[in-house]
Amino acid sequence: MSNKGKAYIVASAIYAGTKDADTVDIMDLEDRLYRAVNAIGFGSDEAKADLYAQVADRLTADTTFKDAVSIIELSMDETAKYLPGGI
């Protein structure tokens, strides 16, 4: 599956069940992100940790779903560039 497809899965998991389906409570964001990154099987533990750190730094409670997909995909691409053997 492409990184864009994985990014949609992660973003969907993060935003599922939110009140307005466009933003997410900041308290839930990190927990949902952690679970989603683990669920998609994104490479080694080092790759997952790198991806998690990048996305957690970039997403905010006001990030829209559409922007989150782009942020997550970019983070996945950057992780793959830095850890090519770990993805």
Please, could you describe this protein's structure?
The chain is mainly α. The protein is 68% helix and 0% strand. The chain is built from 4 helices and no strands. Helix 1 (3-15) crosses helix 4 (65-82) and helix 2 runs antiparallel to helix 3 (45-58).
Keywords:
globular; 87 residues; 0% strand; single chain; mainly alpha
Summarize the structure.
With 87 residues, the chain is mainly alpha-helical. It contains four helices and no strands.
Q: Would you spell out the secondary-structure blueprint of this structure?
A:
Elements: H1 3-15, H2 26-39, H3 45-58, H4 65-82
Helix pairs in contact: 1-2, 1-4, 2-3, 3-4
Point out poorly predicted stretches.
Answer: none
For the secondary structure, the number of strands is 0
Ends: how far apart?
12 Å
Provide a count of the helices. 4
Order of helices and strands: HHHH
Q: Describe the biggest sheet?
A: none
Q: On the 0-100 scale, what is the average pLDDT?
A: 83
What is the approximate shape?
A: globular
Determine Rg (CA atoms, Å): 12 Å
Structural class: mainly alpha
Strand % is under 5%
Helix content: 55-70%
